[in-house]
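Sharing a chain and its predicted structure for anyone who wants a worked example. Both blocks are below, sequence first, tokens second.
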Amino acid sequence: MVGVSTKTESAISIIGVWQHVNFHGRQIWFLPVARLDPANQKRFIPHSVKLFWGLITHFYKLKKSDFWQFHRMDLAFAVGVVPKLKFSYFIHTQDGGLTGNNSDSIWRFFGRLHKAIERIVVKRARSVVVFNQDYATSVAKWNPFTIFSPTWWDPELITNVDHTHAEHRVLWVGRLEIPKDPGLALEAFSRLVEMDPFFPWSLSILGSGTLSGDLLAKISGFAPDVARRVTLHGRMRPLDVAKMMSESGLFLMTSHPGYEGFPRVLVEALASGLPSVVTTGSDTGSLIQSGLNGFVTSRNPSEIAEKLFLSRSLNRSIASESVKSLSAPQLVKKIFIHTTPLKGKVNK
């Protein structure tokens, strides 16, 4: 595995040195080629540039492999020019997901260039996996060895579906950035408390980002009875996020349309038994069946609050059953069958 070391991963601190890492009980070799904070969207140097430069700098340290996986278009384009390199390309966004008006990626300023480079990468790839069904149909026109795959939940991570939960806790998980629109979650929650003030509603927001200061200011402007019910937890480890999901009552997702590929966080929330309220465009996998495992709403805060109120009566078992087929052991095996040669080592 080749990637980045974040500020929260003190154990992975030596850039450019292969390290044996215990990742959720699995032993892997990992080469960090850059250090960055993914939550810092006000960075002077774009993350893409840091990662690209790190990979090129340490490219000679990469192990000889028969096949590669690339999960970033820019890196696939840069390394894919190596003669005879065989690789599979993974697309995690929808068409225009990184270049739309609500994106926080540097590529939003170079939409046409991004599209042109991605088409080149797709055509060079031996196989392509797209985590958005609509975009997969378009990509298949460039490369016939393209498949769509939903994202998955990990049964080794999501284990406490029947855990005693706080019915009143609304959970929001994501980067505190414009594409995810956490401010809308606050507005909707404020309306929810106004609608039903005697129920002990609370809102837990998990994640970090450049909007944290704006959110704190918005919370301080709420009535005291609303403000005291909101907690910003910051970024948390996957295991801790899973625990919070198992202990919460409802899940709220407020992403802008056009951004999400196939949102893992929604899959994990449903797998944890959380009835989910999502804004139009957030649920790109059409997982929500309104009135059964959650509701799809407009971006009107009052309507979101109303759907959260109604979701209290929904069955948690129905929520978890709705994504039972999206467990990692079932989906990942299919992906590797599609993307990996019968013989040879693989680098990701």
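Comments welcome. The chain has a mean pLDDT of 87.
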